[in-house]
Write a structure and sequence with these properties.
Two copies of one chain form a homodimer. The first copy, chain A, has seven helices and 13 strands. By secondary structure, the first copy, chain A, is α+β, with helices and mostly antiparallel strands. Chain A folds into two domains: about 20-170, Jelly Rolls (Sandwich), CATH 2.60.120; about 175-250, Arc Repressor Mutant, subunit A, CATH 1.10.10.10. In chain A, the strands form three sheets. Chain A has a five-stranded antiparallel beta sheet with strand order 1-6-5-8-3. In chain A, strands 2-9-4-7 form a four-stranded antiparallel beta sheet. In chain A, strand 12 (about 235) and strand 13 (about 240) form a beta hairpin. The N and C termini of chain A lie far apart (about 50 Å). The interface of A and B includes residues 110, 172 and 214 of A. Chain A binds a DNA duplex through helix 6.
DNA sequence: CTTTTCCCGGCAACTAATCGACTGCGGTCA
DNA sequence: TGACCGCAGTCGATTAGTTGCCGGGAAAAG
C-alpha cells in the first residue's frame, strides 16, 4: 500500500492560500474562487472550543480513506490541516474527482446531518488532521450556535455550485477545454512567479489531472505535449509552468461576452 | 417562433406519475426515483392557500423562458401543471439539460431565497402554470410554516443529488452507457405496456435526448439504430419501445455486485 | 548499494464521437 | 392545394479520445 511516495507531493507549498479547493469549479458566473469562507472563522474562541470539544479528532496518513461511496453517512469532517480528495469511482473503474478540499472546509456532503449513504469517497491526499462531527451532535451545535448554522448553509450552497459547475463543464466542454480551464484554476490557486511564467506549485501527476478533468492519463500527456509545442506551457520534471494564460483562456471556450 | 408543432408532444400522458423529473438522475445509491415528495403535499389546506396567496401565478406557453442563466435570482417557481426544462448552455452553444421538472416540484435552485445569479436556464417544454414565490416572501412563509421549510430542504437536497449524479454520469460513462441509462429511466417514469415491450409515452425528439445525455443529435440516431439492430429497442414513428430492459441494464455499466 | 515502485513519455491500432451537409417524410398553415 | 418547417435518417470526412504496451528515469525502501 501507499506509503508516502514523495515528500514533496502531498505537502501544501507555502504560496498556497489556506482555504479553498482545486477542481473544475468555476464557471462564468462563479465567484468565490477560493471556496467558501472557512466554517469556523465567524465563531468566537469560546464557540470554537465548544465545537471542537464535541468532535473527535482523527489523524490520517496520505492515502487513508475517510469515507467511501455507499458507506453509511453520519455527519461531516472538518479539515484542520492537509488535503482531502473527494471523488466518485464508477463500477467499471472510471474515476472523477470533485475537488481537493483544503483546511477550513468540511467534507461529507451533500447532506450534513444523518443522511442515507455517501455518494462520493474521500481520501487523504496528504497527511491530514480532521475533526469528525457526528450528525446528532452537529445538529444540536447548529441549533445552539447560529453562526455555525450559517456557515453550514454557505458551505452546502458552495458544494451545490461545485456539483453544478462540474456537471456543466463535463457536459459541454471537450477534454482539451477542460484541461485549459483547470490549468488556469490551478495557476490561480497555486501559482508562483518564475523566470518562464507561473509555476503550479502543487504537484499533481498526470493521472491526478486526468481524474480532475475526466480523461485518461495518456490523453493528458498528449494534450500537455501539444500545449508545450505551441509554447503555452513548459513542463519541467513533472512540474507545469504556465506561460500563456491568455491563450489558455481563449482555449477553454470563453466566458466573456 | 415555435408554435406548438405537435399536439402530442408537450402534453403529459395519463400513465405518468404526477411528480418527478426525467433526466440522468439515478446512480447506484440513488433512491427517490420519481423525485422528492411534492412541496405542498404536507401542508394543510389553509397553509396551502396562504402560500398561493403570496405567490404570483404565471401561465407559460410551450417554449417560453421562465429564467435564464446569468439573470438575477429571486426566489423560486412552484410548478402547478406542465413541464419545465432546466438546462445549461455553454458560450459556444453546447447544451446540457439537467432535468425536466413536473408539477409538484419547484425550480430556480440551487439557492431558494435571494441568490446571486442563475446558473441554469428554465423554459416551458409544454404549456405550464407556475407560481412565483419571491425570496423575501418565501423566507417569511418558511419561517411561519415549518412544513414548507422542510419541503424546501428536501427539495434542495434532491437537487444537490441531481447535480451530483449528473456529474458522475457525465464524468465516468460513455454516451452509449448514458443513453442506456436514460432509456431505463424514461421507461421507469413514462412506460406503458405494449405488444412489443414498454413504450415511452412521453415524446422526446432525438435532439432532446441528445441534450439529456450530452451528445449530438446524430449520435443518438446512430446509437438508437444500433440498439434496434440488436433487438433492444424498436422505434416506430418517433416513439421508442423498449424490449430488453435487461440488456440495457447491463450496457449502462452496471451497479450491482 | 541494490531493488522496487511509481511516474513520465511515446507509439500504434482502434473506436467513439463530432461536424456539416443533404434527403425525405409528415404535419401545419396559409 | 402547395409551401414551409421541424424532425428522423444517412453519409463521408475528420477529430477526439481509448486501450494496451514498452522503456527510461527518479525516488523511495530495504
Amino acid at each position: 500500500m501507499l506509503q508516502a511516495a514523495s515528500a514533496v507531493r502531498g505537502t501544501v507549498p507555502p504560496a498556497v492560500r489556506p482555504a479553498g479547493s482545486s477542481s473544475l469549479l468555476l464557471t462564468e458566473n462563479q465567484q468565490w474562487i477560493g471556496g467558501p469562507p472557512p466554517l469556523m472563522d465567524k465563531l468566537s474562541p469560546r464557540e470554537r472550543e465548544l465545537v471542537l470539544k464535541q468532535g473527535r479528532r482523527k489523524v490520517l496518513n496520505r492515502g487513508q480513506t475517510l469515507f467511501s461511496q455507499g458507506g453509511k453517512h453520519d455527519g461531516i469532517w472538518l479539515i484542520e490541516s492537509g488535503r482531502i480528495r473527494v471523488f466518485y469511482s464508477s463500477p467499471l473503474g472510471r474515476e472523477i474527482t470533485l475537488a481537493y478540499w483544503h483546511a477550513g472546509n468540511f467534507v461529507g456532503g451533500p447532506e450534513v446531518f444523518e443522511g442515507t449513504v455517501h455518494q462520493w469517497s474521500g481520501v487523504a491526499s496528504s497527511n491530514c488532521s480532521v475533526v469528525h462531527l457526528p450528525g446528532k451532535e452537529l445538529r444540536s451545535l447548529a441549533a445552539e450556535i447560529p453562526n455555525l448554522a450559517i456557515g453550514l448553509i454557505e458551505g452546502l450552497t458552495f458544494k451545490g455550485k461545485c456539483y453544478s459547475a462540474l456537471a456543466q463543464m463535463l457536459g459541454t466542454r471537450s477534454i482539451t477545454q477542460r484541461l485549459a480551464h483547470l490549468l488556469l484554476h490551478l495557476v490561480e490557486l497555486y501559482g508562483v512567479e518564475d523566470a518562464d511564467g507561473r509555476v503550479i506549485a502543487a504537484a499533481f501527476t498526470h493521472a491526478d489531472i486526468a481524474h480532475m478533468v475526466g480523461a485518461t492519463r495518456q490523453w493528458v500527456t498528449i494534450s500537455l505535449k501539444r500545449m508545450q509545442e505551441k509554447g503555452i506551457v513548459v513542463t519541467k520534471r513533472s512540474q507545469i509552468v504556465v506561460c500563456r494564460t491568455d491563450v489558455l483562456d481563449e482555449m477553454r471556450g470563453h466566458a466573456s461576452d
